[in-house]
Amino acid sequence: MNIENIKQPFIKIFPGDFSGNTMQRNTPKVLFSTIDPVGFDHPKMIAFNEQLSEEIGLGKFEEKDLDFLVGNNLPENVKTYSTAYAGHQFGNWAGQLGDGRAILAGEITNDSGRKTEIQWKGAGATPYSRHADGRAVLRSSVREYLMSEAMFHLGVPTTRALSLSFTGEDVVRDMMYSGNPQDEKGAVVIRTAESFLRFGHFELMSAQQEHKTLQELVDFTIENYFKEITSEGIQKYKNFFENVCRRTADLMVEWYRTGFVHGVMNTDNMSILGLTIDYGPYSMMDEYNLNFTPNTTDLPGRRYAFGKQGQISQWNLWQLANALHPLIKDEKFLEEILNDYGSYFWESHDKMLCRKFGFDELLKSDERFFTNWQSLMQNLQFDYTLFFNELEKYDDQKDLRQQFEDVSYTFLNDEKLTQLQHFITDYMSRLEENTISKEESLKLMHTTNPKFILRNYLLYQCIEEINEGKTDMLHKLTHALENPYKRIYPEFSAKRPSDYDDISGCSTLSCSS
Ligand code: AMP
Ligand code: MG
Question: Among 268, 298, 312, 510, which is best to mutate for testing ligand 1, by the most ligand atoms less than 8 A from CB?
Protein backbone atom coordinates (compact mmCIF):
# COMPACT_ATOMS: atom_id res chain seq x y z
CA MET A 1 0.00 0.00 0.00
CA ASN A 2 1.14 3.54 -0.73
CA ILE A 3 1.15 4.60 2.88
CA GLU A 4 3.93 7.11 2.17
CA ASN A 5 1.47 9.18 0.11
CA ILE A 6 -0.87 9.85 3.03
CA LYS A 7 -0.94 13.56 3.99
CA GLN A 8 -2.59 15.55 6.77
CA PRO A 9 -3.77 18.90 5.34
CA PHE A 10 -6.44 19.29 8.07
CA ILE A 11 -3.90 19.65 10.88
CA LYS A 12 -1.93 22.24 8.93
CA ILE A 13 -4.97 24.49 8.47
CA PHE A 14 -6.92 24.34 11.72
CA PRO A 15 -6.12 25.06 15.37
CA GLY A 16 -5.17 21.88 17.19
CA ASP A 17 -3.56 20.53 20.31
CA PHE A 18 -0.12 19.16 19.43
CA SER A 19 0.87 18.24 23.01
CA GLY A 20 0.47 14.53 22.30
CA ASN A 21 -1.10 14.33 25.78
CA THR A 22 -3.09 11.10 26.00
CA MET A 23 -5.19 12.25 28.95
CA GLN A 24 -8.92 12.42 28.32
CA ARG A 25 -9.93 16.06 28.57
CA ASN A 26 -11.68 19.10 27.17
CA THR A 27 -9.68 20.77 24.44
CA PRO A 28 -11.35 24.16 24.01
CA LYS A 29 -10.95 26.22 20.83
CA VAL A 30 -9.33 23.43 18.78
CA LEU A 31 -10.64 21.00 16.17
CA PHE A 32 -8.24 18.13 16.82
CA SER A 33 -5.50 16.69 19.03
CA THR A 34 -2.58 14.69 17.76
CA ILE A 35 -2.58 11.18 19.19
CA ASP A 36 -0.87 7.89 18.36
CA PRO A 37 -2.69 4.58 17.99
CA VAL A 38 -1.96 2.40 21.02
CA GLY A 39 -0.36 -0.46 19.01
CA PHE A 40 -1.15 -4.18 19.16
CA ASP A 41 1.36 -7.04 19.43
CA HIS A 42 -0.53 -9.77 17.59
CA PRO A 43 -2.72 -8.32 14.85
CA LYS A 44 -4.43 -10.61 12.37
CA MET A 45 -6.22 -9.55 9.23
CA ILE A 46 -9.77 -10.84 8.82
CA ALA A 47 -10.84 -9.01 5.66
CA PHE A 48 -9.36 -6.49 3.25
CA ASN A 49 -11.27 -4.52 0.61
CA GLU A 50 -8.91 -4.70 -2.40
CA GLN A 51 -11.23 -2.92 -4.77
CA LEU A 52 -11.56 0.09 -2.42
CA SER A 53 -7.84 0.20 -1.75
CA GLU A 54 -7.10 0.46 -5.49
CA GLU A 55 -9.90 2.94 -6.05
CA ILE A 56 -8.75 5.47 -3.44
CA GLY A 57 -5.09 5.27 -4.45
CA LEU A 58 -3.67 3.09 -1.66
CA GLY A 59 -2.94 0.28 -4.11
CA LYS A 60 -2.23 -3.37 -3.37
CA PHE A 61 -1.99 -4.90 0.07
CA GLU A 62 1.31 -6.64 0.90
CA GLU A 63 2.29 -8.68 3.94
CA LYS A 64 4.32 -5.76 5.32
CA ASP A 65 1.14 -3.63 5.47
CA LEU A 66 -0.40 -5.75 8.24
CA ASP A 67 1.00 -3.38 10.88
CA PHE A 68 -0.71 -0.41 9.25
CA LEU A 69 -4.12 -2.10 9.47
CA VAL A 70 -4.12 -1.73 13.25
CA GLY A 71 -1.97 1.41 13.45
CA ASN A 72 1.37 -0.20 14.45
CA ASN A 73 4.86 1.12 13.59
CA LEU A 74 3.64 4.04 11.55
CA PRO A 75 6.05 5.73 9.14
CA GLU A 76 7.26 9.32 9.78
CA ASN A 77 4.84 10.91 7.33
CA VAL A 78 1.75 9.62 9.12
CA LYS A 79 1.03 12.18 11.87
CA THR A 80 -2.14 10.86 13.42
CA TYR A 81 -4.91 12.84 15.13
CA SER A 82 -8.43 12.68 16.49
CA THR A 83 -10.97 15.41 15.92
CA ALA A 84 -13.08 17.28 18.44
CA TYR A 85 -16.79 17.68 17.89
CA ALA A 86 -19.87 18.29 19.99
CA GLY A 87 -23.44 17.17 19.62
CA HIS A 88 -27.03 16.79 20.68
CA GLN A 89 -27.63 13.27 21.97
CA PHE A 90 -31.24 12.07 22.26
CA GLY A 91 -32.39 15.67 22.01
CA ASN A 92 -30.07 17.15 24.64
CA TRP A 93 -26.94 19.22 24.27
CA ALA A 94 -24.02 17.00 25.25
CA GLY A 95 -21.14 19.46 24.86
CA GLN A 96 -17.75 18.21 23.68
CA LEU A 97 -17.67 14.62 22.41
CA GLY A 98 -15.07 13.97 19.69
CA ASP A 99 -13.45 10.92 18.12
CA GLY A 100 -13.45 8.65 21.16
CA ARG A 101 -11.92 5.72 19.31
CA ALA A 102 -11.33 7.01 15.82
CA ILE A 103 -7.84 8.12 14.88
CA LEU A 104 -7.18 9.70 11.51
CA ALA A 105 -4.18 8.68 9.43
CA GLY A 106 -4.90 11.55 7.05
CA GLU A 107 -5.84 11.80 3.42
CA ILE A 108 -4.83 9.91 0.27
CA THR A 109 -5.23 11.23 -3.29
CA ASN A 110 -5.82 8.87 -6.21
CA ASP A 111 -4.70 9.31 -9.85
CA SER A 112 -7.82 11.28 -10.73
CA GLY A 113 -7.17 13.72 -7.88
CA ARG A 114 -9.96 12.34 -5.66
CA LYS A 115 -9.18 12.69 -1.97
CA THR A 116 -10.18 10.19 0.70
CA GLU A 117 -9.73 10.35 4.46
CA ILE A 118 -8.55 7.22 6.25
CA GLN A 119 -9.13 6.40 9.91
CA TRP A 120 -8.82 3.53 12.35
CA LYS A 121 -11.75 2.74 14.59
CA GLY A 122 -10.79 0.93 17.76
CA ALA A 123 -7.04 1.67 17.75
CA GLY A 124 -6.93 3.02 21.28
CA ALA A 125 -8.02 5.83 23.57
CA THR A 126 -7.89 9.45 22.49
CA PRO A 127 -8.34 12.72 24.42
CA TYR A 128 -12.02 12.35 23.48
CA SER A 129 -12.62 8.85 24.87
CA ARG A 130 -14.51 10.17 27.92
CA HIS A 131 -13.62 7.39 30.39
CA ALA A 132 -14.02 4.66 27.77
CA ASP A 133 -11.19 2.54 26.39
CA GLY A 134 -11.06 3.57 22.73
CA ARG A 135 -11.28 -0.09 21.71
CA ALA A 136 -13.85 -1.84 19.55
CA VAL A 137 -15.08 -5.42 19.80
CA LEU A 138 -15.24 -7.91 16.96
CA ARG A 139 -19.04 -7.91 16.72
CA SER A 140 -19.38 -4.14 16.25
CA SER A 141 -16.40 -4.08 13.86
CA VAL A 142 -17.84 -6.83 11.64
CA ARG A 143 -21.15 -4.97 11.65
CA GLU A 144 -19.48 -1.72 10.54
CA TYR A 145 -17.24 -3.38 7.96
CA LEU A 146 -20.00 -5.33 6.22
CA MET A 147 -22.89 -2.90 6.54
CA SER A 148 -21.06 0.15 5.23
CA GLU A 149 -20.06 -1.87 2.16
CA ALA A 150 -23.60 -3.22 1.81
CA MET A 151 -24.93 0.35 1.81
CA PHE A 152 -22.36 1.39 -0.78
CA HIS A 153 -23.42 -1.38 -3.14
CA LEU A 154 -27.09 -0.56 -2.58
CA GLY A 155 -26.24 2.92 -3.85
CA VAL A 156 -26.71 4.71 -0.52
CA PRO A 157 -24.19 7.48 0.35
CA THR A 158 -21.92 6.12 3.08
CA THR A 159 -18.50 5.96 4.64
CA ARG A 160 -16.72 2.79 3.50
CA ALA A 161 -14.57 0.09 5.06
CA LEU A 162 -11.08 -0.87 3.97
CA SER A 163 -10.08 -3.56 6.43
CA LEU A 164 -11.13 -5.59 9.42
CA SER A 165 -8.48 -7.00 11.76
CA PHE A 166 -8.21 -8.72 15.10
CA THR A 167 -6.06 -6.79 17.53
CA GLY A 168 -5.07 -9.97 19.38
CA GLU A 169 -6.29 -8.34 22.58
CA ASP A 170 -9.50 -8.97 24.56
CA VAL A 171 -11.87 -6.18 25.50
CA VAL A 172 -14.36 -6.27 28.37
CA ARG A 173 -17.94 -5.33 27.50
CA ASP A 174 -21.32 -5.59 29.19
CA MET A 175 -23.21 -6.10 25.96
CA MET A 176 -26.77 -5.52 27.21
CA TYR A 177 -25.76 -3.31 30.20
CA SER A 178 -27.12 -6.06 32.47
CA GLY A 179 -24.26 -6.22 34.96
CA ASN A 180 -22.71 -9.13 33.10
CA PRO A 181 -19.37 -7.99 31.66
CA GLN A 182 -17.50 -10.46 29.46
CA ASP A 183 -14.26 -10.70 27.53
CA GLU A 184 -14.72 -10.20 23.81
CA LYS A 185 -12.20 -10.23 20.99
CA GLY A 186 -10.91 -6.77 20.09
CA ALA A 187 -10.83 -5.58 16.49
CA VAL A 188 -9.97 -2.55 14.37
CA VAL A 189 -11.71 -1.37 11.23
CA ILE A 190 -10.10 1.07 8.83
CA ARG A 191 -12.82 3.22 7.37
CA THR A 192 -12.71 5.81 4.65
CA ALA A 193 -14.79 8.78 3.51
CA GLU A 194 -14.35 11.88 1.44
CA SER A 195 -14.63 13.59 4.83
CA PHE A 196 -15.63 12.52 8.33
CA LEU A 197 -16.87 16.01 9.28
CA ARG A 198 -20.13 15.94 11.22
CA PHE A 199 -22.75 18.52 12.21
CA GLY A 200 -21.09 18.31 15.63
CA HIS A 201 -17.80 19.85 14.42
CA PHE A 202 -19.69 23.02 13.45
CA GLU A 203 -21.74 22.93 16.65
CA LEU A 204 -18.57 22.73 18.75
CA MET A 205 -16.94 25.81 17.25
CA SER A 206 -20.20 27.75 17.35
CA ALA A 207 -20.94 26.87 20.99
CA GLN A 208 -17.46 28.07 21.96
CA GLN A 209 -18.01 31.34 20.05
CA GLU A 210 -15.02 30.47 17.88
CA HIS A 211 -16.59 32.25 14.93
CA LYS A 212 -13.37 32.70 12.99
CA THR A 213 -12.60 28.96 13.10
CA LEU A 214 -16.24 28.20 12.36
CA GLN A 215 -16.05 30.35 9.23
CA GLU A 216 -12.74 28.77 8.18
CA LEU A 217 -14.23 25.32 8.68
CA VAL A 218 -17.25 26.15 6.53
CA ASP A 219 -15.00 27.74 3.85
CA PHE A 220 -12.80 24.62 3.88
CA THR A 221 -15.82 22.31 3.62
CA ILE A 222 -17.30 24.26 0.70
CA GLU A 223 -13.99 24.51 -1.13
CA ASN A 224 -13.28 20.80 -0.83
CA TYR A 225 -16.64 19.04 -0.80
CA PHE A 226 -19.29 21.45 -2.14
CA LYS A 227 -17.63 22.53 -5.36
CA GLU A 228 -21.06 23.25 -6.85
CA ILE A 229 -21.28 26.37 -4.63
CA THR A 230 -19.83 29.36 -6.46
CA SER A 231 -21.47 32.26 -4.61
CA GLU A 232 -19.62 34.57 -2.22
CA GLY A 233 -20.17 36.22 1.15
CA ILE A 234 -23.26 35.42 3.20
CA GLN A 235 -24.95 33.94 0.12
CA LYS A 236 -22.23 31.29 0.03
CA TYR A 237 -23.12 30.20 3.59
CA LYS A 238 -26.82 30.22 2.77
CA ASN A 239 -26.20 27.97 -0.23
CA PHE A 240 -24.08 25.73 1.94
CA PHE A 241 -26.90 25.22 4.43
CA GLU A 242 -29.37 24.60 1.59
CA ASN A 243 -27.02 22.00 0.12
CA VAL A 244 -26.53 20.20 3.43
CA CYS A 245 -30.32 20.11 3.84
CA ARG A 246 -30.76 18.66 0.37
CA ARG A 247 -28.08 16.01 0.82
CA THR A 248 -29.51 15.05 4.20
CA ALA A 249 -33.04 14.72 2.80
CA ASP A 250 -31.74 12.65 -0.11
CA LEU A 251 -29.97 10.36 2.36
CA MET A 252 -33.11 9.91 4.45
CA VAL A 253 -35.06 8.94 1.32
CA GLU A 254 -32.41 6.32 0.55
CA TRP A 255 -32.71 4.94 4.08
CA TYR A 256 -36.46 4.66 3.54
CA ARG A 257 -35.98 3.02 0.15
CA THR A 258 -33.75 0.29 1.55
CA GLY A 259 -35.32 -0.04 5.01
CA PHE A 260 -32.30 1.14 6.99
CA VAL A 261 -32.74 2.29 10.59
CA HIS A 262 -29.67 4.06 11.95
CA GLY A 263 -30.59 3.79 15.62
CA VAL A 264 -28.53 6.73 16.99
CA MET A 265 -29.26 9.82 14.94
CA ASN A 266 -27.52 12.22 17.32
CA THR A 267 -26.08 15.33 15.65
CA ASP A 268 -22.57 13.97 16.22
CA ASN A 269 -23.55 11.02 13.99
CA MET A 270 -24.77 13.24 11.13
CA SER A 271 -22.27 13.65 8.31
CA ILE A 272 -22.04 17.15 6.83
CA LEU A 273 -21.73 15.48 3.41
CA GLY A 274 -24.94 13.50 3.83
CA LEU A 275 -23.22 10.12 4.25
CA THR A 276 -24.41 7.27 6.44
CA ILE A 277 -21.86 7.35 9.26
CA ASP A 278 -21.20 5.49 12.54
CA TYR A 279 -22.70 2.05 12.23
CA GLY A 280 -23.76 1.13 15.77
CA PRO A 281 -27.09 -0.40 16.82
CA TYR A 282 -28.52 -0.04 13.30
CA SER A 283 -30.74 -2.54 11.57
CA MET A 284 -32.24 -3.25 8.21
CA MET A 285 -35.95 -3.59 8.78
CA ASP A 286 -37.36 -7.10 8.43
CA GLU A 287 -41.05 -6.70 9.27
CA TYR A 288 -42.41 -3.31 8.14
CA ASN A 289 -43.02 -1.20 11.21
CA LEU A 290 -42.79 2.58 11.41
CA ASN A 291 -42.17 2.30 15.16
CA PHE A 292 -39.27 -0.08 14.84
CA THR A 293 -36.07 0.93 16.60
CA PRO A 294 -33.23 -1.57 16.98
CA ASN A 295 -31.49 0.43 19.72
CA THR A 296 -32.35 -0.65 23.29
CA THR A 297 -31.18 2.77 24.56
CA ASP A 298 -33.86 4.32 22.32
CA LEU A 299 -36.68 2.51 24.16
CA PRO A 300 -39.27 3.54 25.26
CA GLY A 301 -39.10 6.95 23.51
CA ARG A 302 -38.40 5.51 20.06
CA ARG A 303 -36.97 8.86 19.02
CA TYR A 304 -34.93 7.18 16.31
CA ALA A 305 -37.57 4.73 15.02
CA PHE A 306 -37.76 3.99 11.29
CA GLY A 307 -40.74 6.26 10.69
CA LYS A 308 -39.20 9.17 12.61
CA GLN A 309 -35.94 9.48 10.71
CA GLY A 310 -37.22 12.16 8.33
CA GLN A 311 -38.48 14.33 11.17
CA ILE A 312 -35.38 13.78 13.29
CA SER A 313 -33.06 14.73 10.45
CA GLN A 314 -34.97 18.02 10.27
CA TRP A 315 -34.56 18.52 14.04
CA ASN A 316 -30.84 17.87 13.63
CA LEU A 317 -30.69 20.41 10.82
CA TRP A 318 -32.27 22.96 13.19
CA GLN A 319 -29.28 22.44 15.47
CA LEU A 320 -26.95 22.93 12.53
CA ALA A 321 -28.86 26.09 11.55
CA ASN A 322 -28.31 27.45 15.06
CA ALA A 323 -24.63 26.64 14.78
CA LEU A 324 -24.31 28.40 11.42
CA HIS A 325 -26.36 31.42 12.49
CA PRO A 326 -23.31 33.55 13.33
CA LEU A 327 -22.30 33.29 9.65
CA ILE A 328 -25.74 33.53 8.05
CA LYS A 329 -27.37 35.99 10.51
CA ASP A 330 -30.81 35.60 8.93
CA GLU A 331 -33.36 33.68 11.02
CA LYS A 332 -36.12 34.12 8.48
CA PHE A 333 -34.04 32.51 5.76
CA LEU A 334 -33.05 29.58 7.98
CA GLU A 335 -36.64 29.03 9.03
CA GLU A 336 -37.84 29.04 5.44
CA ILE A 337 -35.20 26.54 4.35
CA LEU A 338 -36.09 24.27 7.24
CA ASN A 339 -39.78 24.48 6.41
CA ASP A 340 -39.04 23.72 2.76
CA TYR A 341 -37.08 20.72 3.98
CA GLY A 342 -40.30 18.98 5.00
CA SER A 343 -41.96 19.42 1.61
CA TYR A 344 -38.80 18.52 -0.33
CA PHE A 345 -38.29 15.41 1.79
CA TRP A 346 -41.89 14.20 1.47
CA GLU A 347 -42.04 14.77 -2.25
CA SER A 348 -38.76 12.89 -2.80
CA HIS A 349 -39.93 10.19 -0.43
CA ASP A 350 -43.23 9.69 -2.27
CA LYS A 351 -41.49 9.69 -5.66
CA MET A 352 -39.16 7.01 -4.31
CA LEU A 353 -42.16 4.95 -3.16
CA CYS A 354 -43.62 5.32 -6.67
CA ARG A 355 -40.46 3.74 -8.10
CA LYS A 356 -40.73 0.87 -5.64
CA PHE A 357 -44.21 0.18 -6.97
CA GLY A 358 -43.15 0.65 -10.60
CA PHE A 359 -45.08 3.93 -11.11
CA ASP A 360 -43.44 6.42 -13.41
CA GLU A 361 -45.03 9.51 -11.87
CA LEU A 362 -46.41 10.66 -8.54
CA LEU A 363 -50.17 11.29 -8.70
CA LYS A 364 -52.39 13.24 -6.31
CA SER A 365 -54.33 10.08 -5.46
CA ASP A 366 -51.13 8.29 -4.38
CA GLU A 367 -51.27 9.71 -0.87
CA ARG A 368 -54.35 7.61 -0.14
CA PHE A 369 -52.80 4.59 -1.89
CA PHE A 370 -49.63 4.84 0.25
CA THR A 371 -51.63 5.19 3.48
CA ASN A 372 -53.60 2.05 2.64
CA TRP A 373 -50.39 0.26 1.80
CA GLN A 374 -48.81 1.22 5.15
CA SER A 375 -51.77 -0.14 7.05
CA LEU A 376 -51.65 -3.33 4.95
CA MET A 377 -47.94 -3.76 5.72
CA GLN A 378 -48.36 -3.32 9.48
CA ASN A 379 -51.57 -5.32 9.69
CA LEU A 380 -50.34 -8.29 7.70
CA GLN A 381 -46.83 -8.04 9.20
CA PHE A 382 -45.15 -8.11 5.82
CA ASP A 383 -41.42 -8.13 5.35
CA TYR A 384 -40.53 -4.77 3.77
CA THR A 385 -38.03 -6.06 1.21
CA LEU A 386 -39.69 -9.37 0.37
CA PHE A 387 -43.08 -7.73 -0.12
CA PHE A 388 -41.79 -5.67 -3.06
CA ASN A 389 -39.91 -8.67 -4.48
CA GLU A 390 -43.16 -10.64 -4.39
CA LEU A 391 -45.15 -7.81 -5.92
CA GLU A 392 -42.77 -7.84 -8.90
CA LYS A 393 -43.65 -11.51 -9.44
CA TYR A 394 -47.37 -11.18 -8.75
CA ASP A 395 -49.45 -13.54 -10.89
CA ASP A 396 -53.25 -13.33 -10.71
CA GLN A 397 -53.49 -16.97 -11.83
CA LYS A 398 -51.80 -18.18 -8.65
CA ASP A 399 -53.23 -18.60 -5.18
CA LEU A 400 -52.86 -15.30 -3.30
CA ARG A 401 -52.14 -16.85 0.09
CA GLN A 402 -49.46 -19.11 -1.33
CA GLN A 403 -47.79 -16.20 -3.05
CA PHE A 404 -47.58 -14.00 0.03
CA GLU A 405 -47.39 -16.39 3.00
CA ASP A 406 -43.58 -16.50 2.97
CA VAL A 407 -43.47 -12.73 3.08
CA SER A 408 -45.52 -12.35 6.23
CA TYR A 409 -44.53 -12.86 9.87
CA THR A 410 -48.10 -13.89 10.74
CA PHE A 411 -50.74 -16.29 9.41
CA LEU A 412 -52.75 -14.77 6.57
CA ASN A 413 -56.29 -15.55 7.73
CA ASP A 414 -59.31 -14.84 5.53
CA GLU A 415 -59.78 -11.34 6.84
CA LYS A 416 -56.15 -10.47 6.14
CA LEU A 417 -56.37 -12.07 2.73
CA THR A 418 -59.38 -9.93 1.85
CA GLN A 419 -57.43 -6.79 2.78
CA LEU A 420 -54.58 -7.99 0.58
CA GLN A 421 -56.95 -8.74 -2.31
CA HIS A 422 -58.40 -5.23 -2.12
CA PHE A 423 -54.95 -3.75 -2.10
CA ILE A 424 -53.86 -5.80 -5.13
CA THR A 425 -56.99 -4.71 -7.04
CA ASP A 426 -56.17 -1.05 -6.23
CA TYR A 427 -52.57 -1.61 -7.23
CA MET A 428 -53.52 -3.13 -10.58
CA SER A 429 -55.75 -0.22 -11.45
CA ARG A 430 -53.05 2.25 -10.32
CA LEU A 431 -50.58 0.50 -12.67
CA GLU A 432 -52.99 1.25 -15.53
CA GLU A 433 -52.25 4.96 -15.04
CA ASN A 434 -48.59 4.44 -15.98
CA THR A 435 -47.37 6.08 -19.17
CA ILE A 436 -44.50 3.57 -19.38
CA SER A 437 -44.63 -0.03 -20.61
CA LYS A 438 -45.01 -3.06 -18.32
CA GLU A 439 -41.32 -3.93 -18.97
CA GLU A 440 -40.15 -0.45 -18.06
CA SER A 441 -42.27 -0.50 -14.94
CA LEU A 442 -40.78 -3.84 -13.89
CA LYS A 443 -37.27 -2.55 -14.57
CA LEU A 444 -37.97 0.40 -12.28
CA MET A 445 -38.96 -2.05 -9.55
CA HIS A 446 -35.90 -4.28 -10.15
CA THR A 447 -33.50 -1.36 -9.79
CA THR A 448 -35.25 0.23 -6.80
CA ASN A 449 -36.04 -2.82 -4.66
CA PRO A 450 -33.07 -4.77 -3.35
CA LYS A 451 -33.23 -8.58 -3.43
CA PHE A 452 -30.62 -8.90 -0.73
CA ILE A 453 -30.38 -6.83 2.43
CA LEU A 454 -27.88 -7.48 5.19
CA ARG A 455 -30.24 -8.58 7.95
CA ASN A 456 -29.13 -8.55 11.57
CA TYR A 457 -29.54 -12.29 11.98
CA LEU A 458 -27.15 -12.91 9.08
CA LEU A 459 -24.60 -10.61 10.67
CA TYR A 460 -25.14 -12.42 13.95
CA GLN A 461 -24.41 -15.80 12.32
CA CYS A 462 -21.37 -14.37 10.59
CA ILE A 463 -19.97 -12.95 13.85
CA GLU A 464 -20.50 -16.30 15.63
CA GLU A 465 -18.55 -18.02 12.84
CA ILE A 466 -15.64 -15.56 12.87
CA ASN A 467 -15.46 -15.99 16.65
CA GLU A 468 -15.00 -19.72 15.98
CA GLY A 469 -12.27 -18.99 13.43
CA LYS A 470 -14.37 -19.60 10.30
CA THR A 471 -14.83 -17.15 7.44
CA ASP A 472 -17.16 -18.94 4.97
CA MET A 473 -20.15 -16.84 5.90
CA LEU A 474 -18.07 -13.65 5.72
CA HIS A 475 -17.11 -14.45 2.12
CA LYS A 476 -20.63 -15.44 1.13
CA LEU A 477 -22.14 -12.33 2.68
CA THR A 478 -19.51 -10.17 0.98
CA HIS A 479 -20.46 -11.69 -2.37
CA ALA A 480 -24.18 -11.22 -1.69
CA LEU A 481 -23.87 -7.62 -0.53
CA GLU A 482 -21.82 -6.71 -3.58
CA ASN A 483 -24.82 -7.76 -5.72
CA PRO A 484 -27.86 -6.57 -3.76
CA TYR A 485 -30.18 -6.41 -6.76
CA LYS A 486 -29.61 -10.09 -7.56
CA ARG A 487 -30.65 -13.22 -5.72
CA ILE A 488 -27.21 -14.87 -5.46
CA TYR A 489 -27.97 -17.06 -2.45
CA PRO A 490 -31.73 -17.75 -2.21
CA GLU A 491 -31.37 -18.70 1.46
CA PHE A 492 -30.22 -15.11 2.20
CA SER A 493 -33.25 -13.59 0.46
CA ALA A 494 -35.77 -14.98 2.91
CA LYS A 495 -37.64 -13.93 6.04
CA ARG A 496 -35.79 -13.79 9.35
CA PRO A 497 -36.20 -17.26 10.94
CA SER A 498 -38.25 -17.10 14.14
CA ASP A 499 -35.37 -18.58 16.21
CA TYR A 500 -33.74 -15.15 15.95
CA ASP A 501 -36.75 -13.12 17.13
CA ASP A 502 -35.54 -12.57 20.68
CA ILE A 503 -31.78 -12.93 20.51
CA SER A 504 -29.92 -9.84 21.72
CA GLY A 505 -27.55 -8.68 19.05
CA CYS A 506 -30.17 -9.71 16.51
CA SER A 507 -33.55 -8.14 17.13
CA THR A 508 -32.31 -5.67 19.70
CA LEU A 509 -28.92 -4.06 19.96
CA SER A 510 -27.27 -1.88 22.52
CA CYS A 511 -24.77 0.92 21.97
CA SER A 512 -22.11 -1.21 23.68
CA SER A 513 -19.45 -1.83 21.10
P1 AMP B 1 -22.22 7.64 19.50
O2 AMP B 1 -22.88 6.46 20.10
O3 AMP B 1 -21.67 7.36 18.14
O4 AMP B 1 -23.07 8.88 19.49
O5 AMP B 1 -20.93 7.90 20.39
C6 AMP B 1 -20.85 8.87 21.38
C7 AMP B 1 -19.43 9.15 21.77
O8 AMP B 1 -18.87 8.04 22.48
C9 AMP B 1 -18.48 9.43 20.61
O10 AMP B 1 -17.67 10.52 20.98
C11 AMP B 1 -17.68 8.14 20.51
O12 AMP B 1 -16.42 8.35 19.96
C13 AMP B 1 -17.58 7.71 21.96
N14 AMP B 1 -17.32 6.25 22.16
C15 AMP B 1 -18.14 5.23 21.92
N16 AMP B 1 -17.55 4.05 22.25
C17 AMP B 1 -16.32 4.34 22.72
C18 AMP B 1 -15.20 3.56 23.23
N19 AMP B 1 -15.24 2.24 23.32
N20 AMP B 1 -14.10 4.23 23.61
C21 AMP B 1 -14.05 5.56 23.53
N22 AMP B 1 -15.03 6.34 23.08
C23 AMP B 1 -16.16 5.75 22.67
MG1 MG C 1 -20.67 8.35 16.90
Answer: 268
